[in-house]
UniProtKB/TrEMBL annotation:
UniProt similarity note: Belongs to the bacterial diacylglycerol kinase family.
PANTHER family per UniProt: DIACYLGLYCEROL KINASE
Compartments, record wording: Cell membrane
Name recorded for this polypeptide: Diacylglycerol kinase family protein
Topological type in the membrane: Multi-pass membrane protein
Transmembrane segments: 20-41, 53-73, 94-117
UniProt key word Lipid metabolism: yes
Keyword annotations of the record: ATP-binding, Cell membrane, Kinase, Lipid biosynthesis, Lipid metabolism, Membrane, Nucleotide-binding, Phospholipid biosynthesis, Phospholipid metabolism, Transferase, Transmembrane, Transmembrane helix
Example GO molecular function: kinase activity
Pfam families: DAGK_prokar (PF01219)
Superkingdom of source: Bacteria
């Protein structure tokens, strides 16, 4: 039983390590995090309500999570096949496509939250 808890604590340790690796080494994650901070600033500036904060955090989490998985897929691709291959290109393209789904969702949420402040 105690082995189970030690394994869980180790998993959390590796997950936190991965979290900081993404934030400190991956340009795409650093860029998305910067955008997330800008939107957090906008939320504070416009004093958005509790539901809008929840939707905004959900959108930020969605984009960062999918972007992180896309980064992991790119790393696996580069590791298993460093040279050019049509299938690697296809795999990387559809992994990026997943990020596009998340970003479009986040853009829709951002428009719903902030358009009224800009359009009056
Ligand atoms: N080994 C490869 N074989 C075929 N096409 C590739 C290969 N590597 C990259 N590509 C093509 O180049 C595109 C960009 O790949 P890349 O790995 O540079 O990702 P990226 O989107 O620039 O991500 P990042 O900026 O996070 O590195 C892929 O979507 C794919 O179309």
């Amino acid at each position: 039983m105690s082995g189970f808890f030690i394994d869980r604590v180790k998993s959390i340790k590796y997950a936190v390590k991965g979290f900081f690796l993404l934030l400190t080494t991956e340009n795409s994650i650093i860029t998305q995090t910067t955008i997330a901070l800008v939107f957090t600033g906008m939320g504070l500036y416009f004093k958005i309500d509790r539901v809008d904060w929840a939707l905004q955090f959900l959108a930020i989490g969605l984009v960062l999570s999918i972007e992180s998985l896309n980064t992991a897929i790119e790393k696996v691709c580069d590791f298993v096949h460093p040279d050019y291959h049509q299938k690697i290109g296809f795999i990387k393209d559809i992994a990026s496509g997943a990020v596009t789904f998340a970003v479009l969702t986040a853009l829709a949420i951002a428009l719903l939250i902030y358009a009224p402040y800009f359009l009056g």
